[in-house]
Specification:
Strand 1 and strand 2 form a beta hairpin. Helix 1 packs across helix 2 and helix 3 crosses helix 4. It is elongated and about 110 Å long. The longest helix has 22 residues. With about 190 residues, it is α+β, with helices and mostly antiparallel strands. The protein contains 5 helices and 4 strands, in the order αααααββββ. The chain has a 4-stranded antiparallel sheet with strand order 1-2-3-4.
Length: about 190
């Protein structure tokens, strides 16, 4: 039996409905959403001075939290989440610790195209380590207490002193040939 007017297969879709359901239309819509997100990230990335101020506050909070018991990495990550919403009480941190922090640590922030980063430089991290990221107007600290240098001391006392003492064998175990190996020091050219 043949039906001349079968309305089940007729589509009365508008051009916009056909566009949003096509592959090209979905690719264009996804591209527009990504472009809007990138433009939003570009215009809302924090400036260097805003990053410096907020990260200095976050570093002070890190010093404040770790004044007694030093936690593990999980504690630092949880504290970093709370640092986003709180401010430091600098009256709790001892003055000598603040002076030591400012003496041995240098905080620098950089503005990238779509985000900003802050790095801390000290003798432990001369190349710098990232302690914060700013994107969409939010500054997210990633600081660990071990990244901050608060104590400094000499590695060795003099030029001629060895860093590591040679091991002393107190037992009668046979260690083979040359059990006490020491490092080689150049004494200059030997003239014959």
């Amino acid at each position: 039996m043949y039906q001349a007017e079968n309305t089940n297969f007729k589509t009365n879709q508008s051009i916009t409905q056909e566009f949003t359901r096509s592959c090209l239309g979905r690719i264009i819509i996804a591209g527009v959403i990504i472009l809007v997100g990138l433009l939003l990230a570009y215009f809302t990335a924090p400036k260097e001075n805003d990053m410096d101020d907020e990260m200095l506050d976050n570093l002070m909070q890190c010093l404040e939290v770790n004044d007694g018991i030093k936690g593990d990495a999980v504690d630092d990550y949880v504290h970093n989440l709370t640092f986003i919403f709180t401010t430091a009480d600098t009256t709790v941190i001892p003055k000598d610790e603040l002076e030591t922090f400012h003496k041995y640590n240098k905080l620098e922030s950089y503005r990238h195209t779509f985000y900003s980063t802050s790095h801390i430089y000290n003798n432990m991290h001369p190349e710098g380590t990232r302690v914060g990221v700013g994107i969409f107007g939010i500054i997210i600290p990633t600081v660990l207490y071990e990244d901050i240098l608060l104590e400094i001391g000499p590695v060795h006392k003099g030029y001629e002193q060895k860093l590591n003492n040679a091991p002393i064998n107190t037992q009668d175990d046979d260690l083979g040939e040359t059990p006490n190996i020491t490092e080689f020091h150049y004494k200059g050219d030997i003239e014959n």
